[in-house]
Design goal:
By secondary structure, this protein is mainly alpha-helical. The protein is 64% helix and 6% strand. A two-stranded antiparallel ribbon has the order 1-2. A hairpin with a 2-residue loop joins strand 1 and strand 2. The two termini are 20 Å apart. The model has no long low-confidence stretch (mean pLDDT 91).
Length: 144
């Protein structure tokens, strides 16, 4: 694993676990941290606590009906949502975050997951992308 290619938070949370063959734990730790960072920001902005899939939908979601934008997205990946292209980008990243919580984090939290080394590498790269996108959206990712 080339840790230099990944976000420093992934290295902080996952490197030791990965090197000791605790692959599921390495993945779980990074996605729980993504969830925690988004949760803290949404709680700060709204005063309401969400988690997992619902959190990601609240954080990044919006509606566009009959030409009217109903923006509830609290975290934007683009400067504004006034064009279809920008809305597609926002919606696409929302779907990636929702999918990561639904397909990867939630099953790990509720049952044993046994990824091999190769799959773990890919999932840690996904976690790295999520941290990078959060930073690009203006969130601080603390790294010790």
């Amino acid at each position: 694993m080339n840790w230099e290619e990944l976000h420093p938070k992934v290295r902080q949370l996952a490197e030791e676990r990965f090197n000791n063959n605790f692959y599921a734990d390495a993945i779980s730790m990074t996605l729980r941290e993504v969830n925690s960072i988004v949760k803290a920001e949404i709680l700060r902005l709204t005063g309401t606590e969400y988690d997992g899939i619902n959190l990601m939908r609240q954080a990044f979601g919006f509606q566009y009906n009959n030409g009217n934008l109903e923006r509830n997205a609290r975290i934007l990946f683009v400067p504004d949502l006034t064009t279809e292209s920008r809305r597609n980008i926002q919606d696409g990243y929302r779907n990636i975050f929702v999918g990561a919580m639904s397909a990867i984090r939630n099953p790990k939290a509720h049952e044993n997951m046994n990824p091999d080394e190769s799959k773990t590498r890919h999932l840690l790269q996904l976690s790295s992308l999520l941290f990078i996108k959060l930073e690009e959206a203006g969130l601080q990712i603390p790294v010790e």
